[in-house]
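Expect chain and fold; see below:
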Amino acid sequence: MNEHAIAGLYAVTPDEADTARLARMVEAAVAGGARLVQYRNKTAPPGLRIEQARALLAVCRSARVPLIVNDHPDIAAAVGADGIHLGRDDGDVAAARARFPGALLGVSCYDEIGRARDAKRLGADYVAFGRFFPSVTKPGTIRASLALVAQAKREVGLPIVAIGGITLENAPPLLAGGVDALAVISALFGSSDVRSAASRFAALFTEERT
């Protein structure tokens, strides 16, 4: 298991073409309490992705927060990111583990417990389920359930990340149900005050432990 804890607010970046603005947003998120950052940009060309990943890595290194690259192992390797996150069409999990033996490796499992079992067997450090709620980013994906989280806790035993339409209002049942980290895009980076939004999400984890 990688030394980085998979817990707390997991900030996932929006599609943002302005690298400086994106870096400021991520800096605000980690200042507010984000414990992990995922660089995700579905629309940028390769050169911009590398530029942005390098900029965000500098922010994350300063804050001692791991940077995980979504979808693109080559970009993770080029910038020396702390981890890689793979979806269904993003490459082989076992090959990624062999290529990045010391990196964080996350796998999107949607609503599929079998995919989570396979991810653990192939070397994943955490699994992500979702969407749990209506989502602007993932509008067409199948809904996952809290029952799936409980099953994964019993049968898989890896840290669980929830994603998809998560807000401050609907997050508490996920934490009560056993989710370790909340992956948030719109409710964090769509806020007029990213640092304050991150702080409020981070506080949910403190409240859950008390």
Summary: The longest strand covers residues 104-110.
